[in-house]
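Hi R.,

Quick one: here's the Protein-N(Pi)-phosphohistidine--sugar phosphotransferase sequence you asked about.
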Amino acid sequence: MSDIADLFRPHLVFFENVETSRELFRKIGQKLIDQGLVKPAFTEAIIEREKHYPTGLDMSAVGTDIPNVAIPHTETDYCNTDRIVVVKLENEIPFHNMITPKKQLNVKFAFFILNGKKSAQTNILSSLMESFTQNWDLKTLSQFNTEKDIFQYIQSKTEKGSV
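And here's the predicted structure, written out as tokens:
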């Protein structure tokens, strides 16, 4: 797999004002379809996968006041490229917990994994999780108010083999 830094692009950082994960998936899914990054069935596939395999991560174990994240992804068949899409949510929205699926948690960021290679999905997921716990300061990330600032922060923390 290429370095995780290669998966981020400035035009794939979004700010969204939504109330549910389904609404988020529909909005981001349409943007990705419009850009040709995913197949038309992507949105429904990610909604369905989230029902059975939740992607919310409780970050309270890392420290206090750290925003929770979600890492939505679906099968590689629905993706035309390898990218990580970053979404900062205006208001936290509920996601089911990846570790304890019956529990819900409020999420401030969603990091969508787009992956066309079956073998790399686990590596991307684990690299992101490592970034959340060791390399990035999610509290700092949540203070940025432009897509450019978020992209530059992530780029500064992921380049030079830091992940």
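The chain has a mean pLDDT of 90.

Cheers,
M.
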